[in-house]
Design a protein that fits this description.
Rossmann fold; 252 residues; 8 helices; globular
């Protein structure tokens, strides 16, 4: 078997209808995996992947524990247990920490960090604890330079939430290594997705000149890193944050 081949593996991807999420779904299908595409609104991914029997779109609120249980049961019945969890769901926010709206800050932390941990715990108990596997979290390069770059990501609360994701990645990697689980994060830089809420040309003009490779990222730029971390090629890599940002941030 080729070291990047994921035949027979079941990947559970959250936020699967968004720009990065949909690219990840397509990328893992191309790597021959079975993909559970979970999103609050799974219709876009269902339409994009219509007729592909290796994709199971599921409506899921990642903060709903009972909904997660039902989704995992549906996954097991359709494809078998989850082998790879890809925590991609998240929200963008623009609050300052010192005087921003406290409820909005808490919502950002709840979705981007607390829900990620809760889903990971449930998937761990459902399958990974007994069979090993991979956990991949989507963080953000912005969180590594939050005080300087948070205006690019949307807000300090977003940076704060993604910094927690990076720390969770290392803590969970340490705790789950005895079970044969690797836990890593991908930290995207400026990626053009609908979350930005502006045309690609505007995002390019605003940020491209600050990036050493001279352009903003596209969702497909994240796919190779994710497939690599999910594959046997990355079997001895855990607790790492892989920055995919065109050189915008060159050290963690």
């Amino acid at each position: 078997m080729h070291i990047f081949d994921l035949t027979g593996k079941t990947v559970f991807i959250t936020g699967a209808s968004g720009g990065i999420g949909l690219a990840l779904v397509k990328g893992f299908v191309e790597a021959s995996a079975n993909v559970v595409a979970a999103d609050l609104n799974p219709e876009p991914v269902a339409a994009a992947m219509a007729g592909n029997d290796r994709v199971l779109p599921i409506a899921l609120d990642v903060s709903d524990g009972s909904g997660i249980g039902a989704a995992l049961a549906q996954t097991r019945a359709h494809f078998g247990p989850v082998d790879i969890l890809l925590n991609n769901a998240g929200v963008k926010s623009g609050e300052r920490l010192i005087d921003g709206d406290r409820k909005k800050i808490q919502h950002t932390l709840s979705v981007n960090a607390e829900a990620l941990l809760n889903l990971t715990r449930l998937v761990y108990e459902d399958s990974l604890k007994n069979s090993g596997g991979r956990i991949i979290n989507i963080g953000s390069s912005i969180s590594s330079r939050g005080a300087i770059l948070n205006y690019q990501a949307g807000g300090a609360d977003y940076c704060y939430s993604k910094a927690i994701v990076h720390d969770l990645t290392q803590l969970l990697a340490y705790e789950t290594a005895p079970q044969g689980i690797t836990v890593n994060a991908i930290a995207p830089g400026i990626i053009h997705t609908p979350m930005h809420g502006r045309p690609a040309e505007e995002t390019e003009a605003r940020h491209g000149g600050r990036i050493p490779l001279g352009r903003i990222g596209q969702p497909q730029d994240i796919v190779g890193a994710a497939v690599f971390l999910a594959s046997e090629a990355a079997a001895y890599i855990t607790g790492q944050v892989l920055h995919v940002n065109g050189g915008m941030v060159m050290s963690d």
